[in-house]
Design brief:
The chain is α/β, with parallel strands linked by helices. Helix content is about 40%, strand content about 25%. It contains 13 helices and 14 strands. The strands form four sheets. The chain has a six-stranded mixed sheet with strand order 2-4-1-7-8-9, sandwiched between helices. A three-stranded mixed sheet has the order 3-11-10, sandwiched between helices.
Length: about 350
Amino acid sequence: MKIALIGPPQSGKTTTFFAIVGPQSHPSDHQKSSIATLSFFDERLDRLADIVHSRKKTYLHLELLDSPQLCATPDKGLNFAQVREADGFTLVLNAYSPDAKPILNFQTISSELLLKDVEVLEPTLQKLELDLKKGRKEREKEHPVLVKCQDALQKQTPLRKISFTPEEEKWLKPYEFLSKKPLSLIVNIAERDIGKKGVVLDDIAKVGFPWIAFCAKTEKELLELEESERKSFITDLGIEQLARESFLRAAFQAFHVISFFTVVGEEARAWSLQKGKNVLDAAGKIHTDMARGFIKAEVFSCEELFTHGSLHTLREKGRLRLEGKEYIVQEGDVLNIKFGV
């Protein structure tokens, strides 16, 4: 999963990047990108590994891209070219300077995402309709999907708010429509506003996207300290959770993903899965052979394991369930896939 940090000039986007990933080298050229891999340290995986005596732990991870500044080009608006292949966006909004207008910036970027999709869709649809007139029947099913997108965009509706069938999703995938990608927000506040609530945050909460607020400059400086020093400053500043962890939670919320776990041999591993997907989808995520030869899945909740303390006790109490391929995977499930190929 790759997430691109986007933001207009003066939003503090690159400082925010460092506040999340920690100190590292970065291009001096604002038109170049940096990328870092983040692991999501889930304490549930730690507890699971301890109980089942796993020597190896593999956490969820994602790639974070510090994209180039969104600078306007003549007659073409903002340039999103280098972030189109990201799986989703996190928009950084300036709320630290006295003249900051985070809501206006949010509205501007949202409108630009819609506009860029229109710029891709209109010529594509025109060419498709010409192809259909020439008898290219293989693209017949694609046409109503693009018309559906056109109707939404004409109503200023982001494509992420439109429901598409799995078949429609396949037709849309090559186009990488920007307004279809998940979006979360980071509100970059001033140090004086840490721990405070205000009109700006109240307004951000109303826009309907997962969001977090922190002072990027302060958190970047905290990550540059030794851990012993850092802890005392965190306490003094009243910071409840560092940006890294809160960012990952907001990102997963925007993607509508859940976490499930597996224990295979000496490895306990966390996996991500789209919310609402079934255990067959989860099996395919682990290995295609598991999905192809799926028989059944032994399932239990990690929370129940923590309550009872051992797999032996769970078995005695009948809490290990056998589920078929239609079972909808729940947050925190531990899966043992039975399969044969």
